Amino acid sequence: MTKQAAERYALVAAGAVIVALTVGGFWLSYAHLAEVAGQHGLGSSPARRWAWPATLDAFIVAGELLMLRAGLRRVTDGWAIALTATGSVGSIALNVAGVSGAGSAGAVPLLDYVVAAVPPTAALLAFGVLMRQIHQLVDRPVDHPDTPSPKLADPLAATSTQPPEPQVRVPESKPRGGRPAGATVEQLAEIGRIAAVEKGRLTREIVRKAVQDKGLTVSGKRLTEVMGILRPEFEADADTGPDND
C-alpha cells in the first residue's frame, strides 16, 4: 500500500467517525431540548415539543452547510460562521439551563450539567475538525498533466533574462545511477528550473526528463535534493503572483 492510499483510507475512516459523532451529538442535544420544551409550556403538544428545537438547531445546520460551501470555494463566509456560532452556543446554553429548569438549582449534581453540555459541544468540535480536513484537501496543490498553472506566469517573466540553457559538462562515460561527475546539484536544479517554467508547473517527472534530455542521469536521492531547492522558489512565486498582475 502506498503512502497516498494509506492517507486516503485514514481520511475516509476519520471522516466516517466525525460524521457519526456529529449526528450522535446533534440527536442527543435535540432530544434533550425537546424534553426541556415539554417541561416549559409545550408538554401538551408532542408535535410542537419536538419541532421547537429546530428553531435553534436549524441555524447550526444552515451555518455548517454555508461554511462547507465557503470552504470548497476557498473563501470566508462571516454570516455562516455567525449562524453556526449562534446556534451552537445557544444549544449548549439551553441544554445546560434545562437541567435545573424544573427543580432546585442547588440540588442538581454537577455531572448532570456535564452530561447535558457534552452532546452539543461534541457536535460543534466534530464539525470543526471536518472543516479543517476539507480546507486541507482544497488547499493541497495537485499536478494536472493538461492544465498549466496560471500562477507560474510571473516566474516565467522573472527568469526570461536568464541564460537559455546551463552549460553542463557531460562526461563520455556515465555511471548507471546518480549524477555524472561534471553536473552539480545547482546545475541540475537550473535544468529543472528552466524546464518547469517552460511547462508551467513543477513535478519530479518534468525535472527528471529535462535532465535525461541533457544526456545526464539522476538518482532518486539526488532528484529529491533538486526538488527541495526548486519547490520553495515556485511556491514563493505562486504566493506573490496575483499581487503582480
**How would you sum up the global shape?**
elongated
First-last Cα distance: 43 Å
Q: How helix-rich are the residues, as a percent range?
A: 55-70%
Whole-number mean pLDDT: 75
Order of helices and strands: HHHHHHHHH
Number of strands: 0
Derived structural class = mainly alpha
Estimated radius of gyration: 29 Å
Count of folded domains: 2
Total helical elements:
9
The poorly predicted ranges are: 142-160, 170-181
Q: Strand share of the residues?
A: under 5%
Largest sheet: none
Protein model, in words:
- The model is unreliable at 142-160 and 170-181 (pLDDT under 50).
- The chain folds into 2 domains: 3-139; 150-244, no CATH class.
- The chain contains 9 helices and no strands.
- The relative contact order is 0.09.
- With 245 residues, the chain is mostly helical.
- The radius of gyration is 29 Å and the shape is elongated.
